[in-house]
Amino acid sequence: MSNEYAKERNLLKFSTFACFCFAALGIGLGIWAGSMVIVFDGAYSLVSLLLSLMALAATIYISKPAPKNNTSGKAVSAQKAAVIESLVVLIKGLAVAIVCVVSFASALDAMFTGGRDVNAGFALVFGVVNVAGCLATYLAIKKHSNKGASTILKAESSQWLMDTVISAAVLVGFLVAWGLMMTGYGEYAVYADPMMVILASVYFATVPVKMIKDSVKRLMALAQQRESAHRHGVLA
């Protein structure tokens, strides 16, 4: 296994562990505090955990050495690696898109059904810890990724960036709610959190769209290459 694949595998292990911690923290504290928005944040981290495990498994599979002195075997291995990378990114993009849509729909529903009650003090503490943790994880992966990082690792980085932005939007919602309650406009505080989630979901919708678009284009290009190789007898 090359040093680059070993490095990427370690980064994905770190990402997977971080996802597990945020999922456990969010779901556990959300249930304990009776906060659905915190539970939802933890549920998103749980989705991220499953995606990170999938990315890690794909990287381990791709890093298996190709057959020596076998040009055809190496070509097949390279094709499989490229296809697996593209499929992983495509699935990640679809999952992130679903999270955006569900977040938007949930927040929109809250806007028309009385908003969301917020325990400002507890929520602010959770929000600060969550944003700091997500940002630190994103920066760590970004810092240790080289310029030629695989599309899987780039997608993992984008996933953490999105998590950071969504968490920051939720934190801003908590801050606005706290400010409204402190200034005598408590009846409007319940709308602060869903409004920020709506804005974040709309703003970040371009990320999964780009991931899906790039993956589909790459898969189509790989399919054409494979068809051409078959015609010329390069692949079995």
Mean pLDDT reading: 76
What is the general shape?
Answer: elongated
Percentage of residues in strands: under 5%
Largest sheet geometry: none
Low-confidence spans: pLDDT under 50, at least 5 residues? 70-74
Number of extended strands: 0
* Residue share in helix: over 70%
Terminus-to-terminus distance: 25 Å
Number of helices: 8
Topology pattern, helix = H, strand = E: HHHHHHHH
Which secondary-structure class do the elements indicate? mainly alpha
Please state the CA-atom Rg, rounded to the nearest Å: 21 Å
Report on this model:
The protein is an all-alpha fold and 236 residues long. It is 84% helix and 0% strand. The chain is built from eight helices and no strands. The radius of gyration is 21 Å and the shape is elongated. Mean pLDDT is 76; it is low at 70-74.
Q: Can you summarize this structure?
A:
This protein is mainly alpha-helical. The chain has eight helices and no strands. Helix 2 runs antiparallel to helix 5 and helix 4 (120-144) packs antiparallel against helix 5 (151-182).
Considering the chains and any ligands shown, give keywords for the structure:
mainly alpha; 236 residues
How do the strands and helices of this protein lay out in sequence?
Layout: H1 3-33, H2 36-62, H3 71-112, H4 120-144, H5 151-182, H6 186-189, H7 192-203, H8 206-231
Helix pairs in contact: 1-2, 1-4, 2-3, 2-5, 3-5, 3-7, 3-8, 4-5, 5-7
